[in-house]
Amino acid sequence: MKPLQLPVFLLRITRSQGILRRYFVVNGFDGALTMLGLITGFLVSGSTELGVVINVCLGAAIALAVSGVSSAYVSETAERLRALKQLEAAMITDLQDSAHGKAVRWVPVLIALVNGSAPLVISLLILTPLWLADAGLVLPLAPLLNAIVVALMLVFLLGVYLGRVAGISWLRSGVRTLALALLTTGLIYLLADS
Q1: What percentage of the chain's residues is helix, strand, coil (to nearest 5)?
Q2: pTM of the entire structure?
Q3: Taking a C-beta distance cutoff of 8 angstroms, is the pair 133, 143 a contact?
Q4: Using only C-alpha atoms, what is the Rg of the chain?
Q5: What's the start-to-end Cα distance of the chain, in Å?
Q6: What single-letter DSSP state applies at residue 121?
Q7: Contact 171, 163 (CB under 8 A)
Q8: What is the chain's pLDDT, residue by residue, as a tens digit (194 residues)?
Q9: Cβ-count burial of 15 within 10 angstroms (0-12 exposed, 13-18 middle, 19+ buried)?
Q10: How far apart are CA 182 and CA 176, in angstroms?
């Protein structure tokens, strides 16, 4: 088996493709809403140095990534070991050197990488307008507003993806996730004014 085929095979025998999709969307959504919340908070708080905004958001993105990797790895390893022990008990044999044994070692790593990389990548995409503005590039809107627009677009695209996975209207699904992001932004504005 070729090296790239092994992860696909292990995901297939453990039926983990759905878990990867869920973790990608859930943590991608977390990353987008966290950045949206931070950036909106900075926007309503008044003048803040762009470098401070970038550093705070980057710190949160890294924290989300580390949390995602570590929590998924620990929990998935425990679940995979439990499933392997149950299978070994049912078959009355040691499966450590089998494909199922390899899956116990590798599937949690793959899931953890997806779980941690989703919020990091999405956060970095949202921060891109801030870095561009900090580098002197003139943007169509103020840097924080540009970042908010990127965040809203990414949340919409995550909804579109979910709609495609579920076989439902991609537009309705995208609008629903976008509405959640707009609700989040609205709540931040309301709480900041009170």
Answers
A1: 85, 0, 15
A2: 0.85
A3: yes
A4: 20
A5: 61
A6: H
A7: yes
A8: 565 565 666 666 667 677 888 889 999 999 999 999 999 999 998 877 999 999 999 999 999 999 999 998 898 888 767 876 776 666 766 656 656 667 666 778 888 999 999 999 999 999 999 999 999 999 999 999 999 999 999 999 999 999 999 999 999 999 999 999 999 999 998 988 76
A9: exposed
A10: 10
